[in-house]
Every structure is written in structure tokens, then in C-alpha cells.
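Collaborator request, handled under Task 6.
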Amino acid sequence: MFQLNQQRKSNKQKLLIAFQQKLSQLHFFDPACGCGNFLIVTYRELRRLELWVLREQHGKRQDTHLALDITPLIKLEHFHGIEIDEWPVRIAEVAMWLTQHQMNREFARQFGREPDLLPLKSAAHIINGNALVLDWG
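C-alpha cells returned to the collaborator:
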């Protein structure tokens, strides 16, 4: 019976790891992103889903030494947008960084430390342009 439980736990761990990997490979694109609401909500909810996966994998750890191996894999670079007006592009970029910070704080509440992301190197790819004439590739 003990061996069966261990196999189930091992299989669950493998499935959770595979699911987190799959989540980390998704990319999202909004060709008329405005201030980035779709991208922001999508990023936030994916990070929440990833937090659930990490909690299922590792439990709720408060010991920072144990939490060093726990890393969120969903990146801002996987979120892309085009907006015709420049000001909403800047708002969307800042809003994505703020959302990342909020989710990192949530990660810290769950696991006792924030991911090391400073200096800000990552950013969502939101460009100022006309989606009707730009090459999306």
C-alpha cells in the first residue's frame, strides 16, 4: 500500500512538472492591446495557476533555504502586443511590470522569498504600431 501511494505521488509530481513546463512555453498576443488589460489579466491568472502547481508540488514553505529551488517559469517575454497609440503602450509596459511585482509578492507569501528579478531585464513585448500593416512574425 505504501509503495502504491509513493507511485501515485511520483506520478502526480511528474504531471505537475510537465504542466508547469507547458504553461511556461505558452505565448500570448494581442494585436490591439490598448493599455494591456488582456495581457495583464492573462499573465496574472497564469502566474496564479503556476502558484497552485508549485503549492501542490512543494507544499506551503516558509523556510527560505528550502524555497531556493522553487522558481516561477512564466515570463513577461511571452506576452506580446501591438498598439497604435504610444501612451497606452507605455502604460501597458508599466502595468505588466507592476503585475509581475504583485505576483512575486504573492510568491513570497507562499514560499518565503521573492524570485530574484532585479535589475528589470525582462519585459512584455508591446510595440507601438498599426497592427493592420505590421508584420506579426
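The cover message to the collaborator said: "The longest strand covers residues 79-83. Residues 2-128 form one domain. Please let us know whether this matches your experimental observations."
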